[in-house]
## 1
Amino acid sequence: KVVVVGSANMDLVGLAPTLPRPGETVLGDDFVMAPGGKGSNQAIAAARAGGETTFLGAIGSDAFGVTLGARLAATGVNTTWVRTSYGTSGVAVIMVDHAGENSILVSPGANRTFTGLTADEQAVIGEADVLLCQQEIPMETVHAALRAGRAGGTRTILNAAPARDLPPGLLDEVDLLLVNEIEARAVAGTGEPDMGALLALVPRVVLTLSGSGARYADRDGQDVHIPAFPVEVADTTAAGDAFTGALAVAWGEGRDLLDAVRWANAAGAACVQRVGASGALPERAEIEALYNS
Ligand code: ADP
C-alpha cells in the first residue's frame, strides 16, 4: 500500500510559435488541458505501476477540482481522503514555443489550504507500507505526514522537488531521499551532488541522473550506479514522476532497493518514449517488459 501526500494541479498548456513578452499577445496553436502536480502525477504513476494507492491532497470547489478527482479515481487511486476546499484548484499555466522553450506560472490554489492533518489522515498514513511526499504543498504538512509515517512504521520517501528550504528536523523523519542533481545540491547545500553530505542527513539516497539512470547510496556503505534503459526519447516530461511512483510501489512490495531502482528506471524509460505528462505514465506491464528486456 502506497500513500501519496501532495499537490494536484490542472495543467493548461498552450503551444505558440514564440512565447509572448510582457504586454504582447501571441496567436498560438494547440491547447491541451491535463491533470498535473507532482502529488497527483506520482499517485497516478504508482497506481499504474500496480500499487494500491491512496492520495491525500486538496482540490478546489471549481470545475477543475471535479476533473482532477475523477481522473485520479478513474486510474484506480483511492480518493476517499481528498479534500475539497472552497475556491480554485491549483493551476499551472504553461506556454511552450516551437523550440520547446517554456514559461510556467503555478497558482497553488487549494494546495495552499492543505494544512492540519487530522488524526484519521495520520492513521491512513501510518497504516501504509510506503509514504511518498513532495514539496508542492505547505512544508508543515509534509513534515506532519512524515512524522505520522514514522510513528506508524511506514517507510517514508521524500522527493525533495521542487527544491525549497526545509524546516529544521524534517529530514530526521525521512527513510529515503529521492532527488535529481539540482535538488541534491539544494538539500546538501553543496556545489556538486555530494552523497556523503546527503547520507549525513538521511539513511538512504536515490539520485536520478536523467539519461544515465540513477545512483543509490546508503549508510551501510552501498553506493551503486544503476544504468538507464536505452530507449528512443520522445518527451522527458513526467519521467521523474514515473520513476518516483514506481520506486514507491517496488519498495512497498518488499523488493530490495537496488532492484527497486532498476524497476523505477524501467518506468522512467517507458515514460520518455511517449509525449505527454500524466498521460505518458506507464502501466505495470510496460514497466515489466522493459525491466525483463
Ligand atoms: P527529473 O525529471 O525529476 O529531473 P530525471 O530527468 O533524472 O528526473 O529522470 C528520471 C528518471 O527517468 C531517470 O532516473 C531515468 O530512470 C529515466 N530517464 C530519464 N531520461 C531518460 C532517457 N533519456 N533514457 C532512459 N531513461 C530516462
## 2
Amino acid sequence: IKLLAIESSCDETSASVIINGKIINNIIATQDVHRKYGGVVPELASRAHQKNIVPVVDEALRQAGIAKSELSAIAFTQGPGLLGALLVGASFAKAMAMALQVPLIGVNHMQAHILAHFIEEPKPEFPFLCLTVSGGHTQIVLVKSPLEMEVLGETQDDAVGEAFDKTAKIIGLPYPGGPLIDQYAQKGNPLRFEFPETSTPGLNFSFSGIKTAILYFLQREVKKDPDFVKNNLEDICASVQHTLIKMLMQKLKKAARQHHIKHIGIAGGVSANSGLRSTLLQEGEKRGWTTFIPQFEYCTDNAAMIAMAAHYKFLEKEFVGLDAVPNPRMKFHGT
Ligand code: ATP
Ligand code: MG
Ligand code: FE
C-alpha cells in the first residue's frame, strides 16, 4: 500500500508518503507571510498553499523514489481548519485521485494529530487517553481504536495554544509565540507570579479568562515599572506556562481516574512544549501511567500524521467520493 497524504488546514503545506504503514518522509513548507500580522491570515494562507503544494508534493514523491502511477490512494485533510486553506489540499488531492484513478481518503485533522502516536515506537495500546492540545483545539479524547475516538472534554472558549499565542502577543513576542514562551520559561521561576485558574465543569476547559488576567496584571505592573516585562520576561513566561500546564493536567488526571486508564498520551502543537512534556512524565511516574509523546516534528501540523490516519482508513476501505467537500468544523467519525 503506497499512499500520498496532503495537509493544508492552516499555515503549513505538507506532503508525506507512507508505504505499508511506514512513514517514508514528511515534507513541510511553513508559511512566513503571517508573522508580520501576528496571526494566520486566511486569504494569505490559501495563496501560499497554492504556491507550495506542487513543489512539496513533487519533493515527497521524488525523495520516496516512487512514481505517481504506483500510488494506491491519495489522502487529504478534510477538516477542521480554514476553509480556503483546506480547499487547496482537497482540490489538489481530488484532481490527482481522478487523474490516477485511485481512491480518495478524507482525513480528520484532530484524529490525525492523535494517530501521530503510531508513526514510531513505542505505540500506545488501546484504549488510551489523549490530551490533544493545539492552536485551535484542547480536548481529552478516549481512543478506543485507530478510527474510534470519543471526546470526553474540550475547551469551552479559547484553545490552550491560543492562550500561549495571545499571552505572547501581550508581552510583545512575535507570532507564533508558544515556542518562544517555552524557551524563556526554561530559564524562569514558574512560581514567581500567580494567575487565577478558571474552573469549568466536568472534563471541559476554559482558557479565555487567563489571557485577560495576564493583560490586567501586566498593565498594573507596567504602570509601576515601565520595564517590568523586559526585566521579568523569563519569570512571566515560566509562570504563565506553569498555570496553563496545571489547568491541563488537572483535567487529564481527573479523566484518567474516572475512566481507570493508565495509558496516557499528548498530541497537537502544544505537546511540543517542554514543560508539558516533563510534567506529563513526572505525573505519569507518580501515578504508574505509561506515557506517550510523539516526536517533535509529528506534534505540530504535518502530513505524516495525515498519512498514518490514511493508512488505517485504507485498510478499512474508508474512502470518500470526488464530491467530498472540506469541512472547517469537522467532527470525529465513528464515535
Ligand atoms: P488545530 O490543530 O487545532 O487545527 P493548529 O493546526 O494551528 O490548530 P498546531 O499546528 O497543531 O495547531 O499547533 C500550533 C500551536 O502550537 C500554536 O498555538 C503554537 O504556539 C503552539 N506551540 C508550538 N510549539 C509550542 C511550544 N513549544 N510551547 C507552547 N506552544 C507551542
Ligand atoms: Mg501552524
Ligand atoms: Fe493542527
## 3
Amino acid sequence: MSVFQHTTFYTTVNQLHQLPPPDGVEIAFAGRSNAGKSSAINSLANRGRLAFVSKTPGRTQNINFFQLGSGRFLVDLPGYGYAKVPAAIRQHWEHLLSTYLQTRKSLHGMVLIMDVRHPLTPLDRQMLDWFASTGKPVHILLTKSDKLSRQQTRDILKNVLLLLCETYPQCSVQLFSSMTGEGVEEATALLGTWFALDSNLIKELNSTQNRDKLKIKSPRLKGNKTGGKLP
Ligand code: GDP
C-alpha cells in the first residue's frame, strides 16, 4: 500500500519556533508557484484537493505539514517566484526556508517540482544550493509532461540530468503529469523507499540508543543484581 494513502493536514508554520518537534521523518516539496506542486501532491496522495489547503488565505507563505501515519510527514514549502512580493516578505521567506532546509534534522529529502517547459530557473538552483550542503537526496519532478511531445520531454529530461550530474550528484529526475498520471507510480515508489528506509533506520538507532542508555544506567538500577538487561 502507498505511504501516501492516509495523508491528512497536520499543521501550518510561519516562524521557525512553531515547527513541530523533529521526531519523525519529513520529506519536503518545493517549487516555483504554478509549477504544479499542489497538483502533484494531490496525485501522489490520491486526494482531490488535499494540498490546496496550503493555498488558503494565511497559509500561502507558510510551511504546511501533512501527516502520513505516525511519524511521517509530507512538508509543503511555500511556492516561490512571485514577481511582486515585498522585500520584507521575501527576506522572511528566505530565512524560514533556508534555515528549515539546512538545519532540520528530521528532514530526509526534498522533492523539487519544476514545470518541464521551464526547468532549473535561478530560484530552483537557489533551492538546490541551500540543500546541497546537507548531502541529503533531491528528487526532481518535471511536471506537466503532457504539455509537450514525447521527444521533447525526453530531450529535456536528458539535458536536466546532464546538468545535474556534475553540480548536484545527489539528485534524481523523472517526468511527471498530474493530468495523465505519468510518473505517479515511479515517484510513489521512490518516496516510499525514502520513508521506509529512514523509518527503519530511526527505529534501529532508537533501539540501539535505548540499549546503550540502559547499559550505562544499569549499575544504578535498584534491586537488579544482573544489571539493566531488558526484560
Ligand atoms: P502550484 O502553484 O505549484 O501548487 O501549482 P498547481 O498545482 O496549483 O497548478 C498550477 C496550474 O497548472 C493549475 O492550473 C493546474 O491545473 C495546472 N497543472 C498542474 N499540474 C499539471 C499537469 O501535470 N498537467 C497540466 N496540463 N496542467 C497541470
## 4
Amino acid sequence: MSAKRNPARELLFGDLWEYDPAPETAKAFIDERYGLFINGKFVAPKTKKYFDSISPRNEQKLAEIALAGSSDVDAAYQAATTAFKSWSKLPGTERAKYLFRIARLLQDRAREFAVAETLDGGKPIKESRDFDVPMAAAHFFYHAGWADKLDHVTPGRTLAPLGVIGQVIPWNFPLLMLAWKIAPALATGNTVVLKPAETTSITALKFATILQDAGLPPGVVNFVTGAGETGSAVVNHPLAAKIAFTGSTAVGKAIQRALAGTGKRLTLELGGKAANIVFEDAPIDQAVEGIINGIFFNQGHVCCAGSRLLVQESVAAAVLAKLKIRLRSLRTGDPLDKNTDVGAINSKAQLARIQALVAVGVAEGAEIYQADCNLPEKGWYFPPTLFSNVSQSHSIAREEIFGPVLSILTFRTPEEAVEKANNTHYGLSAGVWTDKGSRILKMSTELKAGVVWANSFNKFDPTSPFGGFKESGFGREGGKQGLLDYAQLV
Ligand code: NAD
C-alpha cells in the first residue's frame, strides 16, 4: 500500500489508502514479426507487406503482422480444401482427441495467452486471465465432447460437415471469438480459413503454435491476417461452403448482400444495444453490481453489453445514486495491473468514436456523470460514464457505442419496459432484475433478444447457444444449436 490518497475509496470505506501498482509479470512471448499460417506453417505473405500491431495500453508497437492479399487467401482455401478430404473422414473419436489436446495446451499456456491478449487488446488482465482464456479452452473441451456424439444431436439423422468455412472475427474477444468459431467447425468435420481483426491478430497467431504442438493435420485451420479487404477476400472466395462472421451490423449487411444467390451458408453475429431492466422489487445492490458488470466489462466492448439501463421510476433515484458511488470505486488504467477494472480502449479509432457519441449525448441534453480518474498519459483510455435523463430518441439510446458508457432511461409499467426494450433494431441480449419468477418468464418471452439474463448479466457457457434477432444477426454459437449451423442433415 502507498500513502497516496484516493477520495473515492475514502468516501466508500473511510480509509486513506490506495493500492500500489500490481503489474502481471508473466511473459507474453510475442514474436517481432508474424507470417500467415497456411497449411500448418508460417509463411511470408505474397504481398510482401506487413502492418504494425499497436498496444492500446501505451501505444507501443508489439509486432509486425503479415498483410494477406487475395492470392494468400486463395492459398489458405486450397490448403483447407485439400485437408477437408481427410479431416472430414476421420472418426469423431479421433477429431475429439485433437480438440482435447488443443484445450489442454491452451490451459498449459493460459498465463502467457492472458498477458498477450491484454497487451494486444487492452482488456484488464483479470478478465483475460479469468474469463477469455479459460472460456476459450472450455469451448474446445465442450466441442471435443460432441465430436464423437454427433449422431445424438439429431437422432435418426446423420450430420455431415459442410466443407471449408470462412470465418471473420472482431477485436473485442480475439481468442474467445476464435474458439467460438473454430471448435464447432472442427468438431463437425469442417476445415477453416479464419481472419482475426486487424488490431488483435496476435493471440490467433500464437494459437497457431498450439495447433502445431497438438499435431493438427496441416491445412485444417489456416489464419490469414489483414483488414477489411482481406476479410472481403475470405468472404467472397468460391471455395467457401459457409461464412461465419462476427462484427458490426454494417459489415454484416454488406456480406449478406455479397453472398445472396451464391448458395453459401451464412451466420452473422452482429451488434447490440441491450436493455438491462431493473424493477422496483429487485435486489437493488445486486442489480447495481449487475449493471456495472453489464456495461463496464471489457470497457463496454461487448456486443451484448447492457448499454441501456431501464429502471422503474420509483427506484430510479436510488439506483442512480448507488451507481455513482460504485462508479467512483472502479479503477481505470493500465490493463496489465491486476487491480484494474476498466482497461484501455482497443484502438485510437474506437476511442474517437466513443468520444464523438458521448459529445452527441451531451449536445442532445442528457446529463453526464464521470468519476474522477487519473488516466495514464500514454495509451487510449476513456473514463466510465453514465448518462441520465435519457429518452428513447437520444442517439446514445439507439446507437451502439461499444465503450464504457451507460444510458439510463426510466419506465413505470412492465408493458412500458417491454416496449422501450424492444424499440431498437438490435436484438442480441437483455437482462431482467426482479424478485418475481413469473415476471422473469413473462418478460423473457416478450423481449426480442437472443439471450435474456435473469438477475444476472454477461454470463456465458459453451453449452448455451448465443445469437441474435433482427439486426443483431442470425445463427447460433454454442450448444447443440451451434453445431447445427456447421453441419448439414443427410
Ligand atoms: P467490424 O465489422 O468493423 O469488423 C469485424 C471484422 O470484419 C474484422 O475482422 C474486420 O477486419 C472485418 N471486415 C471489415 N470489413 C469487412 C468486409 N467488407 N468484408 C469482410 N470482412 C470485413 O467490427 P468490429 O469493429 O471489429 O467489431 C465490433 C462489432 O462487432 C460491434 O458491432 C459488435 O457488437 C460486434 N460483435 C458482435 C458479437 C456477437 O456475437 N453478436 C460479438 C463480438 C462483436
